[in-house]
Amino acid sequence: MESKYTHFWPPNDVLTSITDIVFLMLDTQANILDINPYGCQLLECPAEKLIGKNWIDYCIPKEQRQAVRVVFKQIVDGVRQADHYENSILSRSGKEYVLTWHNMERRDKCGNIVGTLSSGINITERVIRERKIQEALLLAQRKCQAILDNAIEAIIGSDMKGNIISFNNAAEEMFGYLNSEMLGKNVRQLMPAPYRNKHDNFIKNYLSTGEAKIIGSGRELTAVKKDGSSFPIHLSITDTIIDNEHIFTALLRDLSKQKAVEKKLQEKETENRHHNERLAHIARVSTLGEITAGIAHEVNQPLAAIATYAQSGRRLANTDSGDIDELNYVLEQIELQAVRASQVIHRIRNLSKQGDSCRSVFQINEIIEDSLSLVKAEAVSKQVALKCNLGTNLPSVHVDAIQIQQVLLNLILNAIQAMTATPPAQRTITISSECTADKDIRVTVSDNGSGISKEHLAQLFIPFFTTRKNGLGIGLSICRTLITAHGGSLNINRRKRKGSEFYFILPAMHGSKEEDNG
Ligand code: ADP
User: Which of 63, 254, 306, 341 has the fewest beta carbons closer than 10 A?
Assistant: First the structure.
């Protein structure tokens, strides 16, 4: 290209070989004085057509014209030094190219500014690439935010100082703070004392020792809302290292509802337990009522013996030649009988007491024998023989002895009552204890009474089912509740042909178990 401004302008061969820089010469009005072939190529217009046209109006996209005009004016007014500026140009067919320009003023021999000389590097591809990356980043960021914002759980990100860097929608809802209120604030603001004051140290310790307390695992804690109220949460924290910086992501779940449900369930359970205990007590008292005659007999026996021994004692005391050894023997017997009577009374008192369940370690055979001593007299009066077949070396059980006694008494009394039509010579109840194949304890009460008809079998354990005239029908259902509460089961042996056979299974203690849970 022939040019009259060659003193400013690169030589033609250089100009044609430059394929990525636009050279542009303008006068003080921004009219094009000259432009190199690469510039013409981008603008899709020959130099002849471009020369004389106003650069800003003809080649700059409309929305950038005003800004470019301001810069241009500053250069030609001499108030802006040679510098870089980025703007686009628009080709004749409407394609836009981004160029980074180096602009400088041109002066005549007298030093007056006569226009500008600019070189522009086409950075369109780089800008497009950067824009795409930017868009992809923005999209990824939006997706991330959408995930965070749609999460049901509160997610709070914080940096190494505990300053909040993200606070999602669920966190806003949970704490009552806006995201904008919390960004940059310290997470300790969401904690109650004393954790609030210890939190900085927790982070410091973790960062210096790597020893994690909550990080990597979950924990139930208390958090504080904006209104100052506290609520239970489940908190889990993960640590991510980005550019040598630790980013802590806390996942929080509000446990208020869950805790309220748990509390209600607990209350309901306690209520049920008390209800069952009251019912069990009523059943026990009713059982006791059934064996009063037998109990009276059990107490009368030692009392009668005491009276007899006391008479002998008096006789001995009134005799001059009273043998002191014999007197001692008589007193010993009185003591023995008194203890026997008081033991019966003690057992009755225990059975008639109402109180919270109290479990301890027992040998099942001891409980069986205690129960037998209470029904012995009743059995004798009903001409029923009580047979025992107790296993040896059985593992202990962890039970409320009174409740297990109640179950046994109920089963034995039911058996006695079921044998009223059985000839007295055949009235036998066998109580056995053994270890099951699963190493639990099984206690069986077997009789040869009336047995249970098929249609009654399914109803036996339903409360208030009774076939007895004065029966309450709660005995078996309470027995089952008591045994189930011990982790065991109460059932009837359906294979028994003659009479009935009830059995219950209790978990046995093996190895180290807590001795007593009160
Ligand atoms: P109740 O003794 O007040 O009737 P239970 O719940 O103890 O209440 O027993 C319910 C019913 O089960 C009894 O009425 C009786 O029909 C039946 N039953 C319980 N034990 C036996 C048994 N050993 N043999 C036959 N029937 C029995």
Answer: 63
> Span 8-13, mean pLDDT?
71
Residues above pLDDT 70, as percent of the chain: 96
| 481 Cα to the center of ligand 1, angstroms | 16
| Nearest alpha carbon, ligand 1 atom 12 | 460
What is the structure's pLDDT at 2? 43
Distance from residue 466's CA to the centre of ligand 1 (Å): 6
Q: Is the CB of 473 under 6 A from ligand 1?
A: yes
**The tokens 């542009």 sit on which residue?**
24
Task: Kindly give the distance from the C-alpha atom of residue 501 to the centroid of ligand 1, in angstroms, as a whole number.
Answer: 12
User: If you measure from the C-alpha of residue 485 to the centroid of ligand 1, how many angstroms do you get, rounded to a whole number?
Assistant: 21
Question: Which candidate, 416, 424, 430, places its Cα nearest to that of 503?
Answer: 430
Q: For 357-508, where are the alpha helices, taking DSSP H only? A: 364-381, 401-418, 454-457, 475-485
What is the distance in A from the centroid of ligand 1 to the CA of 451?
10
Instruction: Pick the closest to residue 280 from 344, 349, 357, 343 (CA basis).
Output: 357
Q: 247-263 pLDDT, tens per residue?
A: 999 999 999 999 999 99
Q: CA–CA separation, 461 vs 463, rounded Å?
A: 6
The verdict on domain 357-518 having CATH code 3.40.630.30 is no
Find out whether 449 and 415 touch, Cβ atoms under 8 Å.
yes
Mean pLDDT of 212-239: 89
- Residue 337 CB–ligand 1 contact under 6 Å: no
151-254 and 357-518 in the same fold: no
CATH 3.40.640.10 fits 12-128, yes or no: no
CATH 3.90.550.10 holds for 151-254: no
Query: What gap in Å lies between CA 201 and CA 66, rounded to an integer?
Result: 56
pTM: 0.54
Higher pLDDT, 40 or 244: 40
Model pLDDT for residues 432-484, shown as the tens digit of each residue? 999 999 999 999 999 999 999 989 998 999 988 999 887 888 889 889 988 99
The pLDDT of residue 323 is: 80
Q: How far apart are CA 2 and CA 435, in angstroms?
A: 116
- Residue 378 near ligand 1, beta carbon < 6 Å: no
Calculate the average pLDDT of the chain.
88
Amino acid at 463: P
Q: Per DSSP, what are the bridge partners of residue 399?
A: 360
What are the boundaries of each domain within the chain?
12-128, 151-254, 291-355, 357-518
Q: Is 413 touching ligand 1 by the criterion CB < 6 Å?
A: no
Q: What is the spatial distance between Cα 18 and Cα 2, in angstroms, rounded to a whole number? A: 16
Split at pLDDT 50, 70, 90, the class of 322 is low
- Residue 208, pLDDT > 50, answer yes
